[in-house]
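Hi team,

As requested, here is the filled-out complex form for the zinc ion run. I kept the field names the same as last time so the parser does not choke. Let me know if anything looks off before we queue the next batch.

— J.
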Amino acid sequence: MTCKRLVELGERAYPIHIGAGMLRELGARCAETESGTRGLIVSDTQVDALYGNAAAESLRAAGFDSARITVPPGEPSKCHEQLLRIYDAALDAGLERSSFIVALGGGVVGDLAGYAAATFLRGVRLIQVPTSLLAMVDSAVGGKTGINLPQGKNLIGAFYQPALVVADTSTLRTLSLREFSAGLAEVVKYGMIADPELIACLEDTSPEALLDDEALLEKIICRSCEIKADVVRRDEREGGVRAILNFGHTFGHAIEQTAGYGRYLHGEAIAMGMVFAARVSERLKDFPPEETERLIRVLQRLHLPVALPDLPWSDLLEAMRRDKKKVDGAVGFVLASAWGAVRYGCRAPESVLESVWRDHGGAGETR
Ligand SMILES: NC(=O)c1ccc[n+]([C@@H]2O[C@H](COP(=O)([O-])OP(=O)(O)OC[C@H]3O[C@@H](n4cnc5c(N)ncnc54)[C@H](O)[C@@H]3O)[C@@H](O)[C@H]2O)c1
Ligand SMILES: [Zn+2]
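And here is what came back:
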């Protein structure tokens, strides 16, 4: 089974193909994008070892000439040194304006290769081939690309939509279970912001069972892409409604920053952030407490952390204050009044945030 969704952005519209074994069709799908004959496959060494040959072979069989470059796995590769290596490889491979760059990997490769595609020769076609769950349901769709600076994450970047997204769900079998679970946190987020039924799908399963249930896995990835695509269609450059995709992220980012990058995976921090946002929603939007309990049960089934982290409140608050989404001097939150009913830009007074923290066992107050 496979499914196809369209991101409707006028002349920048593009298809997302999702299904087991999709990588074999990469060349044929690329041929439909009217790309030139030359491409560069960017991957990390781990993903390249597993899927680089299959990607190259599929392109070759469809008549494309492709070169390959790899970067080390992990967030530090989202840097300008690796970006320059990609430009060098693109020049060596003779890429032209009509050529394309394939981002084969997780969100790190997607953001890095995406930014390279956005900027090389003022833009060559970008083909996203996400291989982590997070990349399939989130980073490969929507056009945000970029790299980090020593001063912070994603400080350099461009909105640059891909010409095509090809997600082979069978690649998820080699992803670590921890990374897979972390990707599921974003699926729960889509359930919260747009579709309670998505949560119902996750309530009776576990990450292990899901990996064995091809149909259900494809269904939740398709639905997640559909929701993201719809939000992006309504607000491509995050001037408004796209901010709802940040549900759980204000507190989640604060956890990531305070704990130091690497202690929690992004999805794990977001799981804790969503529980916190649900509790704040109880206070400010009458979100029913039993629905917060439901959220907690789903996240626990997916092996995601739900308890408040053992971090100093003052540091977390400071990180939230620095967050870009301030509203009238207060911390800006995405809050829910019910499953599927969220609002962005909600003013969350610090006194409320702190009392939620204290009432739910927040520790680590001393500095
Ligand atoms: N552009 C966006 O809209 C957007 C959205 C969310 C996150 N992001 C970015 O995405 C990045 C995180 O992405 P990620 O979680 O995919 O991390 P990642 O790209 O580092 O991948 C995680 C790990 O899994 C490995 N891996 C990936 N696919 C695999 C597979 N099929 N089999 C075996 N191993 C595999 C990778 O080698 C890596 O070690 C962050 O940099 C974040 O800023 C971007
Ligand atoms: Zn996220």
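Two things worth flagging: Residues 44, 46-47, 50, 73-75, 78, 105-109, 111, 131-132, 134-135, 138-139, 142, 144, 154, 171-172, 174-175, 179, 266 surround nicotinamide-adenine-dinucleotide (ligand 1) (CB under 6 Å). The CA atoms of residues 234 and 249 lie 20 Å apart.

Thanks,
J.
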